[in-house]
């Protein structure tokens, strides 16, 4: 499997240059082999890229901008989808590659429990699906709940990471047992005599 990254070597846009550098730099850091294909110098590369980006992924003007990422002839995505996959530690899945053993992505895949022998990514059949045109109000509420939960998790994590306060001398002393109290009282009585 060959990862192909369609780039524009002579782009005048600094945003496009930064996106291209981000993709290429990340692939190199992960030691993922890829083939850079320049659409600025090759009309064949430009036409192939434009024809093979799926219609729903093309911008409104119909001309997809680099970087565009493919696995062989299969479309993976553009910079935004690559960035989302990177943030979710799902780059190998995004590229259609098996994650290397010991990587975060491989560990995450191992930790996903199967529920009753079914694929956790698959919706249960009895789950009601939203019809096209239904209001998305519930989604906004779910996002707020998720953000609230994340804020609570972060607060708990901070509390766990904060060093414990040094104890005062009184707290550091071990509690005195009854026997030790009696021995201390006997010793004081002997001193008094």
In summary, what is this structure?
This protein is 48% helix and 10% strand.
Structure commentary:
This protein is an alpha+beta fold. The chain is 48% helix and 10% strand. The chain has helices spanning 14-29, 43-52, 79-87, 91-95, 104-111, 137-161, 169-172, 178-192; strands at residues 3-7, 34-38, 68-71, 74-78. The protein has a 4-stranded mixed β-sheet with strand order 2-1-3-4, with helices on both faces. β1, α1 and β2 form a beta-alpha-beta unit. The longest helix is centred in the last third of the chain and has 25 residues, at 137-161. The relative contact order is 0.08. The model has no long low-confidence stretch (mean pLDDT 76).
Question: What tags apply to this protein structure?
Answer:
193 residues; alpha+beta; single chain; 48% helix; four-stranded mixed sheet; 10% strand
Task: Describe the protein's topology.
Blueprint: E1 3-7, H1 14-29, E2 34-38, H2 43-52, E3 68-71, E4 74-78, H3 79-87, H4 91-95, H5 104-111, H6 137-161, H7 169-172, H8 178-192
Parallel strand pairs: 1-2
Antiparallel strand pairs: 1-3, 3-4
């Amino acid at each position: 499997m060959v990862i192909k990254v369609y780039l524009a070597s002579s782009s005048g846009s600094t945003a496009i240059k930064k996106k291209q550098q981000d993709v290429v730099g990340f692939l190199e850091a992960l030691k993922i082999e890829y083939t850079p294909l320049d659409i600025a110098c090759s009309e064949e590369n430009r036409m192939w890229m434009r024809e093979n980006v799926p219609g729903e992924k093309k911008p409104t003007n119909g001309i997809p901008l680099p970087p565009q990422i493919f696995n062989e002839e299969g479309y993976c995505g553009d910079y935004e989808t690559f960035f989302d996959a990177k943030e979710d530690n799902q780059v190998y899945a995004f590229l259609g590659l098996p994650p290397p053993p010991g990587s975060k992505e491989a560990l995450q895949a191992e930790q996903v429990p199967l529920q009753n022998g079914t694929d956790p990514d698959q919706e249960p059949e009895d789950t009601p699906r939203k019809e096209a045109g239904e209001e998305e109000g519930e989604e906004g509420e779910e996002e707020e709940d998720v953000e609230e939960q994340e804020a609570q998790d972060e607060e708990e994590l901070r509390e766990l990471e904060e060093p414990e306060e040094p104890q005062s001398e009184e707290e550091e002393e071990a509690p005195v047992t009854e026997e030790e109290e009696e021995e201390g009282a006997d010793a004081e009585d002997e001193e008094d005599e």
